[in-house]
Design a protein that fits this description.
Length: 155
């Protein structure tokens, strides 16, 4: 186990013990890779890829990741702050797996580019179970929110 994973596990044990053992209204949220339009825009995840597509350049796609939009993370936090019986619990916050292939093809469609996309679709080996936070009313933005983000990046 790496240092990051060990630190995360220790924090979650702290949350668990204070939430359940001592009755403090504390819980943990586990967002995956977070995306959105950063300020400045050039700091946004996938910005270089989207910019190259807009410029008609050939792009090579290799990776993907489990992602959640920053606004969905905020929405999940608001839900948890107002929920009953969350003390001591940890909640995964994950919308969908997004590959560079998905981003490149969506950006190409949005801006009408003729860029060549080199590479193939990637898919995760495992999904993350978000049923706990969904049971509290969480609905993620999905493909529609990804598209909206790419439109803003391409403006």
């Amino acid at each position: 186990m790496g240092a990051f994973q060990a630190h995360k596990a220790a924090i979650e044990k702290f949350v668990h013990s204070y939430g359940l053992g001592l009755g403090f209204p504390i819980c943990a949220i586990r967002p995956t890779g977070v995306y959105g339009v950063a300020h400045p825009r050039e700091r946004s995840k996938w910005y270089s890829l989207v910019s190259d597509i807009k410029d008609g350049k050939a792009v090579e796609v290799k990776r993907g990741g489990k992602e959640v939009h920053v606004s969905d993370v905020g929405k999940a936090i608001r839900i948890l702050l107002n929920a009953d019986s969350v003390a001591g619990q940890a909640y995964s916050c994950y919308d969908r797996y997004i590959s560079e292939f998905d981003v490149a093809n969506m950006a190409k469609e949005i801006c009408g580019s003729d860029s060549e996309i080199i590479g193939a679709q990637k898919r995760p080996q495992h999904e993350i179970d978000c049923s706990k936070i969904r049971s509290l009313g969480m609905e993620f933005g999905g493909e529609q929110l990804l598209r909206k983000t790419l439109v803003k990046m391409l403006d």
